[in-house]
Amino acid sequence: MREPRGQPAASFEDFSFTYSGTDSPALEGVTFSIHPGELALVAGSSGGGKSTLLRAMIGLVPQMYPGELVGRALVAGADPARTPVREMARHVGYVFQDPENQIFASTVEEDVAFGLEVRGIPREEIVRRVEEVLGRLGLSELRGRPVHELSDGQKQLVALAGVLALDPRILVLDEPTSMLDPHNAREMLGLVRGLVDSSDICAVVVEHRLGFSMPLADELLVLHGGRLAARGPPREVMERVELRAFGISPPIPGPRHPVPDPPQSSRVALELDSVHYAYPEGTEALAGVSMEVREGELVAVVGHNGSGKTTLVRHLNGLLRPSSGSVRVFGRDTRRADVADLARLVGVVFQNPDHQIFEETVEREAMFAPLAMGFAPEDARRAAAAAMERVGISHLSLRNPVSLSGGERKRVAVASVLSYGPRILVLDEPTVGQDARNRELLRGLIEDIIYSGRTVIVVTHDLDFIWSLDPRTIVMRSGRILADARLSRVLSDGVLMESAHLVPPWLPSSIPEEESAQRVNGPAR
Ligand SMILES: Nc1ncnc2c1ncn2[C@@H]1O[C@H](COP(=O)(O)OP(=O)(O)OP(=O)(O)O)[C@@H](O)[C@H]1O
Ligand SMILES: [Mg+2]
């Protein structure tokens, strides 16, 4: 049963919502509608109400998250506040920000089939649909792999596949490309656009990476402080309002101030010599990685989903040890060094913050490592306070990390490592869920650490984030280093960019000449 085109697929009228136990509304007087065949992009600062809006579309707000609701919503012909979420989910396909919240079964294939089985779809039909959606998302080769053994980007694609297999009328996607390499991010959004064009579904997408999503969207909704601050065709909104004021990084390059090379006299901080690593079930994730990183150096690691970036990072603090080859941290071979000793030197902030947050308050989390390393309680408290201040979470110090947004939890994880001052800081995808202000905060932090003579390794798909620093960039592909050069050099090498799944992060019309020349004219692969 589909509505005729022309009727909105979802509409909100003067909609306000205040979470129980809070004073200020998370959404206030929001009015908008979306029609079949439309793709709406939702952007705005952290805490602006984006996730609340998405939750309200499927009824999680107020059914799972109680609070005071005023106004009206109609989604796929039903009132999401009063229709059981399970019913809403028949029409609304919701993809969470953290794909780990959406893993239902052990293998990729079973996971994607799960929702169809619950609905009692005949077996042959399930097989056909799963096949099709895996093919579309380039996941066919991974079909038999256990989901928990995939890279985070691969998990994100599987979560989307599970939702697409259900043929929803309304797609609701919370940062669906946050862990995808630029090529996959563009393909994925292109796929969503294609679906919206060819059937009468609509999509509501929260995105920070506007360079890929803006050209594909019909509408841009800017949420700020719970209110709809601007709304309209994306280009028009961008011309009309100063996006930065609303916590949005516009997809155009800003000024550049490259970090300097480390001084010749600086010590070698990390030394990797033909590192090979295979996971216990056999996947060869690193296939001969050699590199040297000095004190005071900033190194970005980029490359396609599953290229081995996170596996590489897990080697730097001795969490994984090479199957063959060696990793040395300030001369200590990680095969022989004590893990606690390595942790003092190398602080790793993992891709998924939930893998390293255990304490019940933000402050205790930030104090944990300093205490474990023998700081006196007062010093640990002071170090934690400084770290929380640095990443803009001081106001959250007494909150339970479980109650925070994904972007906030990520900053808690950064503070928990920053607090003990490791000589090498490793950040795996630090910008997931961060608005423009927090991105600038993180970038400033990286610069300060570099200028203080310490080392930073940042693994990222977000080239926009590192662009202004023009760091030394290691490009990974299939467990090997494909290139090692300043980011500006990488961006100007069309062949390299393509083979490494990289895409400049800007709107096509605003790509600087040095960066676009080769891409447009360069030889095809
Ligand atoms: N725990 C694990 N067990 C088995 N295989 C794994 C495990 N973690 C990752 N892999 C596999 O190792 C390869 C490299 O994964 P890794 O997580 O290092 O990639 P990545 O470059 O960080 O990817 P992404 O950009 O998606 O985060 C992939 O083929 C992945 O499926
Ligand atoms: Mg990774």
Automatic annotation (TrEMBL):
GO MF, one annotated term: ATPase-coupled transmembrane transporter activity
InterPro entries (UniProt xref): AAA+_ATPase, ABC_transporter-like_ATP-bd, ABC_transporter-like_CS, ABC_transpr_CbiO/EcfA_su, ECF_ABC_transporter_ATP-bd, P-loop_NTPase
Primary localisation category: membrane
Regions that span the bilayer: none
Gene3D superfamilies, sorted: P-loop containing nucleotide triphosphate hydrolases
Keywords from the UniProt entry: ATP-binding, Cell membrane, Membrane, Nucleotide-binding, Translocase, Transport
Claim: Ion transport is one of the keywords in the record: no
Subcellular location as annotated: Cell membrane
One GO location term (cellular component): ATP-binding cassette (ABC) transporter complex
Domain (ABC transporter): residue spans on this chain: 10-250, 270-503
Pfam families (UniProt xref): ABC_tran
Membership in a protein family: Belongs to the ABC transporter superfamily.
NCBIfam families: PRK13648.1
Role description: Probably part of an ABC transporter complex. Responsible for energy coupling to the transport system.
Name this protein carries in UniProt: ATPase component NikO of energizing module of nickel ECF transporter
Organism: Conexivisphaera calida
Lineage: Archaea, Nitrososphaerota, Conexivisphaeria, Conexivisphaerales, Conexivisphaeraceae
